[in-house]
non-specific serine/threonine protein kinase
Amino acid sequence: MLRRLQRYDIGAQLETPDQRLKRLTDFVVSTPHEILTYLVIAVDALAVVKQEFNIQNWVSDPCFLVPWEGVQCTNSSSAVRVSDINLSGKQLTTSIPPSLAQLTELIHLSLDNNHLTGALPNLSNLSKLETLHLQNNNLSGNVPEWLFELQNLRELFIENNNFSGVIPRQLLNRPTLQIRYSGNHYLCMNKGDCDLSSHSNRRKTKIILGSLLACGIALAFLLGIVVCRNNRRRNRSSVKILDHSTVLVPDSSKSHAFTPDEMLTATKNFSHKIGQGGFGSVFWGELPGGNQIAVKVLSLFSKQGVAQFLNEIELLSRVHHKNLVSLLGYCNESRDLMLVYQFMSGGSLNDHLYGPDAFKYPNLDWRTRLKIALHAAQGLEYLHVGCTPKIIHRDVKSANILLDSNLNGKLADFGLSKVAMDDDASQVFTAVRGTPGYLDPKYFTSHMLTEKSDVYSFGVVLLEIICGRKPIDITLSEEKLILIRW
């Protein structure tokens, strides 16, 4: 075991052979056997990955002094664990090494945007894995059923590959799992929807000829439909909506599903725009019963739009509190992705403090400011304490505190929120998301997300309420630029 550890021991460069041997011996004696076993297996597994992927800049130790690019380790008082491998866009051209299954502490694995081929190896040993990103490769074969054994898996992105067969139903029915699989032309939701059995060349020829003939007949019919549809929509709004026809809304969602035509009618052809966010444009609308609504429409340029869409539906369909904005429903038909909320006529706290239309609103007296802060705090407390498992909002800011006509505050925008699946978990390792000026510095540097990160952001909001200025104001001098330093 000493020899296997010595291969990756960078400390040897500064020691005599005797000093090095003594230090390694002390390390082996003082370290629990199971941790030593993990370290040896992990180092060997990474060595295989390095060789298979032909990675030249992985030298020395994967976690210390000169960490390997794309490899992140979690350091604790008892051991070092490889928790994150991100080799996205590294021009990898081979198959996925099965040795990755030996990295049993892995939480995030990103191999997307490469040229990987072959089937997905069995990674069922990765019981702690939360995200598996394999999109934009050339992977093939079936979507394996062992993925269901990964109980902590939250994101499975396999779009734009060559996967085939039927997606395991138990994966589709898991409410906490977000699946993205578009761009796999031979992948089906139901067994009856695809036939992947082998055919003779003669049968293939007949199918091709028959298809060509059918296409010729159908072309004229489709052309007529297109003309009629264009005439029908000629007077509709020019709102452009991204094509996400394969987005799956979890079966557990209890939110109402609206149709595109219902949304067109309610918003009067999207004629009254009331806001713009990272998800897309927000429009005012009114349902037949008279209830006013706010409709978010996914933007063509929203990189996280689909993920936020599914996240908000999943969370807000089961979370209800007087200080959280209510999700009334969604639209997920054909090419339309929309979220439908209760309309908050008072705008946002940001609007009242220093938004471009702040002059339209009455000044907030101190009693009202205190009330709004208290309402936002109660909504945040419910997410952290009242929900099981707890929810970390991850984007608390004045623009996400909406006000009704009586200036009652409600927390909004759960697109970036994270669920701590273990109720006793104090932290979640995740990519940094949020808004500059509100980000918890500890979360920003460590990627360890806790409810304290929300509390920090809320503290910035309190400073906004008291001082009446932005968290970052580039019009001010350097010493006044950042609110928390000022």
